[in-house]
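Person: Show me a sequence?

Helper:
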Amino acid sequence: RLEAFDELGRLPYPVPAQDAVGLHAELERTRIHTGGERVHLQIALMARRGEAPPRPRMDVRLVLDRSGSMYGEKWDQAIAAAHQLVDRLEAGDTFGLVSYSDDATVDLPPARVGDHRAAHAAIDRLNPGGGTNIEAALQAAQQVAPRRREMNDVLLTVLVSDGVANIGQTNAGELGAMARRMFDDRGVLTTSVGLGTDFDEETMLSIAREGSGSYHFVRRAGDISDILTDELEERAQAVAQALRLRVELGEGVVATRVYGSTVLNEQQAQAVRATEIATDQRLARELGIARDRQRDEDRGLRMHLPTFRRGDQHVVLMELEVPAGTDPSRIAHVTLDYKDLLARQNRTATTDVEAQRTRDREDSVASTQRTVKRTVLAFAAGDALTAASSALNRGDVAGAQQLLAERRRVLVAGAQLWNDPALSRDADLLGRYEQVIGSAWNGWDGGSRRTMMLAMNFYGDRRMQ
C-alpha cells in the first residue's frame, strides 16, 4: 500500500485576528559560531481563521478525458465523481462540461446549475474513445472560461487525464502557459488530476502550477470523488491573493537551498512577473484594491503564492551559509506583500532575523530551536523520498535504499531526543518504503514500478510545500 506522510502539523505561531495573513521568521539557532556555519531559516505564513465567510458563488468547468484508455473502471469512477461534483454545487452556481479525446467538445455550455438535471444528463451522454489532445481541451476551456459576476466568485477549471498528450501540442511548458493565461486574464484557477499511473506527470504539474491550482495524483479511481469535492470546499475559503515574499539576506549570508522551490530561468521569471501585474490589475478592477505591483521590486530572493485560504499555513525553509564574524549578525529582512480579500486592501508585513555570536560550538548547538529543527527534519524526510524515487528511475536500487535508511536513522534519533511521535511516524514510513523496495522491486513490472515512483515523488514534494 502506498502511503503518504502525515500533515506537517500546526506551527506554534500566532494566527492573526485582523489581517488575512501573519508573517513569522525564525532561525534554526539563536547563536552562530564566530567561525561561520550553515543554518536554516524558517519563514511561516499563517492565515487567519475565525468564522467561515459566506460561501461564494462558484463557476466551475470540468474538463474530462474521454480517450480510449479511460474505458472500464476508471471511466465509471470518473463519471460517478463528475455526478457527485455537480451534486455539491448549488442552484445559483454555474457549471460547464468539456470533454476531449482526439479533439475537444463543449458538452454543456456554461449555465446555472438549477435543479442539476441538465448537468447530469450531459455527463451521462459521454463515451470514451480516441487519443489524448490536452491542447484542444484547454483551448475549449478558454473559450467557455468561468466569468466573475460578483466580487468574491470562485472561478475554477478542473482537468482530469489518465494519459499522455499525443495529439496537438505536447510540450508541458506550452500547455502550462495556456493555463497561466486563464489565470492572468480572468483569475481562473486550473487544477489537474492525474488518474492511474500512465499520465504525464510533468504536464499535469505544469498545468496546475502555471494555472495557480492544485495537482493531484489519484492512483485508485475511487478516490477521484473526494479530490473533486475537496477542491470545491478549499477554493471557497480564499482570504488573500498575490502573495509576494521577499527575503533580503544580511551581508555575506548566502542561500544555498530553498526547499520545495526551484530557481526560475529568465523566461519563467518574466511569466511570473506578468502574472503579478495581471493580478494587480484584475483585483483593482474587480475588488477596488489599489494597484501596487506596477514597479518591479527586485531586491532579495522572491517567492510568489497566487492564493491563500482561511486557516492555511505555508512554510518556506531556506538553507543559509552564514560567514565568520564576531558581531551580532543580521541574517535576513523578510517582507510579505499581499492583497487582503477580506479588507480589500494591500497589506505589507516585515520582520528581521538576527543572531548572536559565540566562540563555543557546543553553545551554538545548544541554542537550536526545536520548532525550526523539527521542520528541517520533516522536510528532509520528504526530500529523501523524492531523491530515492530519482535513484530508482536511474536504476540505482541500492542507492535508493541507502538514502531512505540514512534519513530514517536521523529521524529515529530526533524522535528519541525530543520524544516526538510525529518524527517517529516519518521514520517508520521511510522504513516501510525501504523494506518494500528491498523485497519487491526486482519482481515488479514496469507499471508497478512507475506507480511507486509517482507516489514517492508526489508525497515527498507535498511534504515540502
Remarks:
- The first strand starts at residue 21 and ends at 27.
- The CA atoms of residues 66 and 128 lie 4 Å apart.
